[in-house]
Design goal:
With 246 residues, the protein is α/β, with parallel strands linked by helices. 42% of the residues lie in helices and 15% in strands. The longest helix is centred in the middle third of the chain and has 22 residues. The two termini are 29 Å apart.
Length: 246
C-alpha cells in the first residue's frame, strides 16, 4: 500500500470528512484538511495532536479567493498533490415552493461550484506526476430524488456529469476521477436537520438493515484513492447499504 501521499480533503472536519481524514492519517499519508468551521478544525487537529502529518486550512470552497489561497498554501508546503477528495457539502431541507434564489445559489455554490473551484485551482499541483486521484462525494439521492432538496439533488447530479467529463480530460495525465454516492448518512447535521422518520425509513428499504454511518464511506474512498483502483475512472460507486441497485 502506498504511504506518504499528499492528500487534500475538503469538508474535512465534518462527520464524513473527519472519518476520511482518520483513514489517510492511519496510512501515514500527509493530509491537508480544508473546512470553513474553525472550531471543528481545531477539534480535528486536537484529535491528531500527536501526528505531524495533518495541516488544517480554514476557508470556504465556494469562494474563489479561498481556493486560490488553498493552492498557494499547499504548493508552498508540499509542492504537489496526489489525492484530492471533494467532501464539502451542504444539504438543507427546503420545500421547492418556498425555496429562494439565494438558497438555491448557496447550495449550488458549495456542492457544485466548490468542486469546480477546488479542482481548477489545485490541478496544477497534480499534473505532471503521471498519477493522481480525484474522488468527488456525490449522493445516491440523484437516482430517485428527495422532496425538499431540489437544489441539493440538482447539484449532486451535476457532480456526476462534471466527474465524467473531467475523467476524460485528465486521463492523459494519469489522473482518475470517480464519484462516491452515499445514502442518507447519520451525521450530526443529519440528526439536527432531517426528520427522524426520514432517517428511520431508510433502514427498511436497504438490503443491509441499519443506519449508514460516516465510517462506511472512508473505506470506499480510500479504495478509489489506492493503486487497486488504477484502471477505474469516470464511475459512480454507490455506498448506501443496497438501497439503490446501480
Amino acid at each position: 500500500m502506498q504511504k506518504g501521499r499528499i492528500v487534500v480533503i475538503t469538508g474535512a472536519a465534518g462527520g464524513i470528512g473527519a472519518k476520511i481524514v482518520n483513514r489517510f492519517i492511519a496510512n501515514e499519508d500527509r493530509v491537508f484538511a480544508i473546512d470553513n468551521r474553525p472550531d471543528a478544525l481545531r477539534s480535528l487537529q486536537d484529535a491528531h495532536h500527536t501526528c505531524d502529518g495533518l495541516l488544517v486550512i480554514d476557508g470556504d470552497v465556494s469562494r474563489e479567493e479561498d481556493c486560490r489561497r488553498f493552492a498557494d498554501t499547499i504548493g508552498s508546503k508540499a509542492g504537489c498533490i496526489d489525492v484530492l477528495i471533494n467532501c464539502a457539502g451542504y444539504y438543507p431541507v427546503v420545500p421547492f415552493e418556498e425555496m429562494s434564489l439565494a438558497q438555491w445559489q448557496q447550495v449550488i455554490g458549495i456542492n457544485l461550484n466548490g468542486p469546480f473551484l477546488i479542482v481548477r485551482n489545485l490541478l496544477p499541483l497534480m499534473k505532471g506526476r503521471g498519477w493522481g486521484r480525484i474522488v468527488n462525494i456525490g449522493s445516491a439521492s440523484i437516482f430517485e430524488g428527495v422532496p425538499g432538496q431540489a437544489h441539493y439533488v440538482a447539484a449532486k447530479s451535476g457532480i456526476v456529469g462534471f466527474s465524467r467529463s473531467l475523467a476524460m480530460e485528465l486521463g492523459a495525465y494519469g489522473i482518475s476521477v470517480n464519484v462516491i454516492a452515499p445514502g442518507l448518512t447519520v451525521t450530526e447535521p443529519v440528526r439536527r436537520e432531517m426528520p427522524a422518520e426520514m432517517i428511520e425509513s431508510q433502514r427498511d428499504v436497504r438490503a443491509l438493515k441499519r443506519d449508514e454511518q460516516p465510517e462506511d464511506l472512508a473505506g470506499p474512498v480510500f479504495f478509489l484513492a489506492s493503486p487497486d483502483a488504477d484502471f477505474i475512472s469516470g464511475q459512480i460507486l454507490v455506498v448506501d447499504g443496497g438501497k439503490v441497485k446501480h
